[in-house]
Amino acid sequence: MPVKIRLQRHGKKGKPFYWIVAADSRAKRDGKFLEKLGTYNPTKVPAEITLDIDKSVEWLFKGAQPTNTARAILKYKGAMLKKHLLVGVKKGAFSEEEAEKKFQAWLKEKEAKIKAHQDEVNAARAKERAERLEKEKAINQARAAAQKAANAEIIAEAEQAEATAETPADAVEEALQSEQTIEEAAGTTATEEKTEE
User: Fold this and answer.
1) Of 11, 65, 6, 15, nearest to 36 (Cα)?
2) Fewer Cβ in 10 A, N or C end of the chain?
3) Helices 53-61, 79-91: inter-axial angle, 10-degree rounding
4) Same domain, residue pair 71 and 116
Protein backbone atom coordinates (compact mmCIF):
# COMPACT_ATOMS: atom_id res chain seq x y z
CA MET A 1 0.00 0.00 0.00
CA PRO A 2 1.68 3.28 -1.13
CA VAL A 3 1.52 5.78 1.72
CA LYS A 4 1.69 9.54 1.29
CA ILE A 5 2.26 12.24 3.87
CA ARG A 6 -0.05 15.02 2.73
CA LEU A 7 -2.37 17.81 3.76
CA GLN A 8 -6.04 17.25 4.47
CA ARG A 9 -8.12 20.42 4.20
CA HIS A 10 -10.42 21.57 6.99
CA GLY A 11 -11.76 24.98 7.99
CA LYS A 12 -14.18 27.39 6.35
CA LYS A 13 -14.37 28.72 2.82
CA GLY A 14 -11.62 31.32 2.46
CA LYS A 15 -10.08 30.33 5.83
CA PRO A 16 -8.19 27.09 5.23
CA PHE A 17 -6.84 24.92 8.00
CA TYR A 18 -4.99 21.68 7.27
CA TRP A 19 -4.19 18.44 9.04
CA ILE A 20 -0.90 16.79 8.14
CA VAL A 21 -1.71 13.10 7.73
CA ALA A 22 -0.23 9.83 6.60
CA ALA A 23 -2.77 8.36 4.18
CA ASP A 24 -3.13 5.79 1.45
CA SER A 25 -2.34 7.55 -1.84
CA ARG A 26 -5.52 6.07 -3.37
CA ALA A 27 -7.75 7.63 -0.69
CA LYS A 28 -9.59 10.89 -1.28
CA ARG A 29 -7.89 14.13 -0.23
CA ASP A 30 -10.21 14.62 2.74
CA GLY A 31 -11.03 10.94 3.17
CA LYS A 32 -9.69 8.20 5.42
CA PHE A 33 -6.15 8.49 6.75
CA LEU A 34 -3.84 6.21 8.68
CA GLU A 35 -2.49 8.68 11.25
CA LYS A 36 -2.69 12.39 12.00
CA LEU A 37 0.81 13.86 12.31
CA GLY A 38 0.08 17.53 12.92
CA THR A 39 -1.71 20.70 11.81
CA TYR A 40 -0.93 23.61 9.51
CA ASN A 41 -2.63 27.03 9.67
CA PRO A 42 -1.46 29.24 6.76
CA THR A 43 -3.74 32.19 7.66
CA LYS A 44 -1.51 33.35 10.53
CA VAL A 45 1.78 35.22 10.08
CA PRO A 46 4.08 33.36 10.36
CA ALA A 47 2.17 30.18 9.54
CA GLU A 48 1.29 28.11 12.61
CA ILE A 49 2.55 24.53 12.35
CA THR A 50 2.38 21.74 14.90
CA LEU A 51 4.04 18.45 13.99
CA ASP A 52 4.86 15.22 15.78
CA ILE A 53 8.42 14.88 14.48
CA ASP A 54 9.03 11.35 15.82
CA LYS A 55 5.89 9.92 14.17
CA SER A 56 6.73 11.74 10.93
CA VAL A 57 10.25 10.28 10.90
CA GLU A 58 8.80 6.84 11.66
CA TRP A 59 6.51 7.09 8.62
CA LEU A 60 9.38 8.35 6.46
CA PHE A 61 11.44 5.28 7.46
CA LYS A 62 8.48 3.07 6.55
CA GLY A 63 8.62 4.50 3.02
CA ALA A 64 5.91 7.17 3.10
CA GLN A 65 6.39 9.77 0.37
CA PRO A 66 5.54 13.38 1.30
CA THR A 67 3.86 15.66 -1.21
CA ASN A 68 5.75 18.85 -2.17
CA THR A 69 3.97 21.03 0.41
CA ALA A 70 4.24 18.36 3.11
CA ARG A 71 7.96 17.97 2.32
CA ALA A 72 8.47 21.73 2.76
CA ILE A 73 6.67 21.58 6.12
CA LEU A 74 8.70 18.57 7.24
CA LYS A 75 11.92 20.40 6.31
CA TYR A 76 10.75 23.55 8.11
CA LYS A 77 10.03 21.63 11.34
CA GLY A 78 13.19 19.48 11.12
CA ALA A 79 11.70 16.03 10.45
CA MET A 80 13.76 15.59 7.27
CA LEU A 81 16.94 16.59 9.14
CA LYS A 82 16.18 14.16 11.95
CA LYS A 83 15.66 11.35 9.42
CA HIS A 84 18.99 12.26 7.79
CA LEU A 85 20.76 12.22 11.17
CA LEU A 86 19.23 8.83 12.09
CA VAL A 87 20.39 7.39 8.77
CA GLY A 88 23.92 8.59 9.72
CA VAL A 89 23.56 6.85 13.10
CA LYS A 90 22.53 3.59 11.38
CA LYS A 91 25.55 3.82 9.09
CA GLY A 92 27.80 4.44 12.10
CA ALA A 93 28.93 7.94 11.14
CA PHE A 94 28.21 9.22 14.67
CA SER A 95 26.40 8.20 17.82
CA GLU A 96 22.74 8.79 18.66
CA GLU A 97 23.66 11.33 21.37
CA GLU A 98 25.65 13.41 18.86
CA ALA A 99 22.75 13.26 16.42
CA GLU A 100 20.37 14.48 19.14
CA LYS A 101 22.76 17.32 20.08
CA LYS A 102 22.98 18.42 16.43
CA PHE A 103 19.20 18.29 16.10
CA GLN A 104 18.63 20.32 19.31
CA ALA A 105 21.19 22.93 18.19
CA TRP A 106 19.39 23.22 14.84
CA LEU A 107 16.02 23.57 16.65
CA LYS A 108 17.34 26.41 18.84
CA GLU A 109 18.71 28.25 15.81
CA LYS A 110 15.44 27.76 13.94
CA GLU A 111 13.38 29.03 16.90
CA ALA A 112 15.60 32.12 17.13
CA LYS A 113 15.02 32.82 13.42
CA ILE A 114 11.26 32.37 13.82
CA LYS A 115 11.21 34.64 16.87
CA ALA A 116 13.18 37.31 14.99
CA HIS A 117 10.73 37.08 12.09
CA GLN A 118 7.73 37.38 14.44
CA ASP A 119 9.27 40.42 16.13
CA GLU A 120 9.90 41.98 12.72
CA VAL A 121 6.30 41.37 11.63
CA ASN A 122 4.92 42.72 14.93
CA ALA A 123 7.10 45.84 14.68
CA ALA A 124 5.93 46.45 11.10
CA ARG A 125 2.30 46.07 12.17
CA ALA A 126 2.78 48.45 15.11
CA LYS A 127 4.43 51.00 12.82
CA GLU A 128 1.60 50.70 10.30
CA ARG A 129 -0.99 51.12 13.08
CA ALA A 130 0.80 54.23 14.39
CA GLU A 131 0.97 55.75 10.89
CA ARG A 132 -2.71 55.02 10.29
CA LEU A 133 -3.58 56.62 13.65
CA GLU A 134 -1.57 59.74 12.79
CA LYS A 135 -3.35 60.05 9.44
CA GLU A 136 -6.73 59.65 11.12
CA LYS A 137 -5.82 62.29 13.70
CA ALA A 138 -4.79 64.73 10.93
CA ILE A 139 -8.04 64.08 9.04
CA ASN A 140 -10.10 64.54 12.22
CA GLN A 141 -8.30 67.81 13.03
CA ALA A 142 -8.93 69.09 9.49
CA ARG A 143 -12.61 68.15 9.79
CA ALA A 144 -12.85 69.86 13.18
CA ALA A 145 -11.21 73.02 11.81
CA ALA A 146 -13.58 73.05 8.81
CA GLN A 147 -16.58 72.53 11.10
CA LYS A 148 -15.38 75.31 13.40
CA ALA A 149 -15.00 77.68 10.43
CA ALA A 150 -18.47 76.76 9.17
CA ASN A 151 -19.95 77.32 12.64
CA ALA A 152 -18.20 80.71 12.93
CA GLU A 153 -19.61 81.67 9.52
CA ILE A 154 -23.13 80.71 10.55
CA ILE A 155 -22.82 82.62 13.82
CA ALA A 156 -21.51 85.72 11.99
CA GLU A 157 -24.42 85.57 9.52
CA ALA A 158 -26.90 85.21 12.38
CA GLU A 159 -25.40 88.16 14.24
CA GLN A 160 -25.49 90.27 11.08
CA ALA A 161 -29.13 89.35 10.43
CA GLU A 162 -29.94 90.09 14.06
CA ALA A 163 -28.28 93.50 13.88
CA THR A 164 -30.23 94.51 10.76
CA ALA A 165 -33.54 93.09 11.93
CA GLU A 166 -35.64 94.87 14.50
CA THR A 167 -36.38 93.44 17.86
CA PRO A 168 -39.59 91.37 18.09
CA ALA A 169 -41.27 93.95 20.35
CA ASP A 170 -40.63 96.72 17.82
CA ALA A 171 -41.95 94.50 15.02
CA VAL A 172 -45.17 93.84 17.01
CA GLU A 173 -45.67 97.53 17.70
CA GLU A 174 -45.15 98.37 14.02
CA ALA A 175 -47.64 95.68 12.99
CA LEU A 176 -50.23 97.07 15.44
CA GLN A 177 -49.70 100.62 14.19
CA SER A 178 -50.02 99.52 10.58
CA GLU A 179 -53.26 97.69 11.43
CA GLN A 180 -54.61 100.83 13.15
CA THR A 181 -53.74 102.98 10.18
CA ILE A 182 -55.45 100.50 7.86
CA GLU A 183 -58.55 100.54 10.06
CA GLU A 184 -58.53 104.32 10.19
CA ALA A 185 -58.15 104.49 6.44
CA ALA A 186 -61.01 102.03 6.03
CA GLY A 187 -63.07 104.04 8.51
CA THR A 188 -62.46 107.32 6.67
CA THR A 189 -63.41 105.80 3.34
CA ALA A 190 -66.63 104.42 4.89
CA THR A 191 -67.54 107.86 6.30
CA GLU A 192 -66.80 109.49 2.95
CA GLU A 193 -69.11 107.09 1.20
CA LYS A 194 -71.87 107.83 3.74
CA THR A 195 -71.49 111.57 3.28
CA GLU A 196 -71.73 111.24 -0.47
CA GLU A 197 -75.10 109.51 -0.18
Assistant:
1) 6
2) C
3) 60
4) no
pLDDT exceeds cutoff 60 at 68: yes
What is the number of domains present in the chain?
A: 2
Give kind and range of the element (H or E) at residue 6. strand 3-12
Contact 79, 51 (CB under 8 A): yes
Digit-coded pLDDT (tens) for 181-197: 666 666 655 555 555 55
Mean pLDDT, all residues of the chain: 85
34-42 contacts: CB < 8 A, separation 24 or more?
Answer: 34/3, 35/59, 37/5, 38/73, 38/77, 40/7, 40/73, 41/17, 42/16, 42/18
Residue 48 neighbours by CB under 8 Å, 6+ apart: 39, 40, 41
> What is the per-residue pLDDT for 36?
93
Residue 170 placed within a domain: no
- State pLDDT tens for residues 15-25: 999 999 999 98
CA 167, chain centre distance (Å): 59
**Tell me, what amino acid is at 101?**
K
Of 47-56, 87-96, 108-117, 155-164, which gets the smallest average pLDDT?
Answer: 155-164
**Boundary of a domain, candidates 52, 68, 93:** 93
Range of the domain at 102: 95-165
Distance CA 43, CA 30 (A): 19
Domain contains 18: yes
